[in-house]
Every structure is written in structure tokens, then in C-alpha cells.
């Protein structure tokens, strides 16, 4: 989320046409096209964040700026030359980093929460215990993971959150 994504479509000599067909999981389809005989580009229902990275007659690479969850979906590039049509297909998966909070519950036990991440984060503790993480799925496809550490002392405890978008840790003494 928030970064740019670049999808490569290999150019061929003497391309007559290039088309990107985009079918996101949310919202309607969009397309970008280039016709060499007219040296013309067209776009249909694509947001401003989706565009050619370079000149499509030289390099038909697609760029998605400020990637959001709505960009997730299927992306297909079709290059047309005299020898035939060549397709390159992608499925764009958008990672949402979770928000990490660490607090103490009413019994003095540390509680670690990795909120609204996609996919679900993994929570572990320094000085592992018998904690069982609980997951709550949200309508927007994100997941909150909650883990409670059963502490037997008041020493500082560290919660470690692992996620494809990064790893984080926080420490607390309850």
C-alpha cells in the first residue's frame, strides 16, 4: 500500500498494438491501449494512478502509483505483431502492514495487537509461552491478530510481529 508497482510487458519488434486489460477485485475493469498505425493511445475507465511508465511504442511497461487495496486484481498485457499475439498475465496482491499496539490488561498481562493487516500477521514473544493468537477478519479483507502473554513476572516482555510488509517489535513491563 502506498508504493508504486511496475508490471513489465516485453516489447516485440514491429508491434502493431499493445493493450493492458485490468480487472480489479473491486470496481470495474479498465484498459490502456496503443495502436502503432495511428500512433495513438487510449484509456478506458482507468484512474490517473494507472498509466504507461514509458512511451508504449518503445516499452509497454505499466506503472501503478500510490498502490491501494482497490488495485488488487488481474493485469494482462497483450502485444500484437505479425507473428501473433503474446500475453503476459499478473495477479497483483496488495500488502497492508498492520498497526502494532502493546498494552497491559487488567490482570497485568501484556497484550499485543497487529491490527488491520493483509495478510494476517504472525505474533510471537521473547520468552515464548502458551499464548494463543486470535484472528478477526474485516470486511475490507484485512485481519487483526490479538495475542495475550500470560506473564509470571513483572519483567519487561517483547512482542514480535512478522508480516510480509515488514517485522516490528515492542517491549513493555506490566
TrEMBL record:
It is found in: Membrane. It comes from the Eukaryota. Keywords: Disulfide bond, Glycoprotein, Membrane, Receptor, Transmembrane, Transmembrane helix. One of its GO terms (molecular function) is signaling receptor activity. One of its GO terms (cellular component) is external side of plasma membrane. PROSITE patterns: IG_LIKE. Residues 60-173 form the Ig-like domain. GO terms for biological process: regulation of neuroinflammatory response. It holds the Pfam family V-set. It is a single-pass membrane protein. The keyword NAD does not apply. Coiled coil: none annotated. Belongs to the CD200R family. PANTHER family: CELL SURFACE GLYCOPROTEIN CD200 RECEPTOR 2, CELL SURFACE GLYCOPROTEIN OX2 RECEPTOR PRECURSOR. This is MOR1A protein.
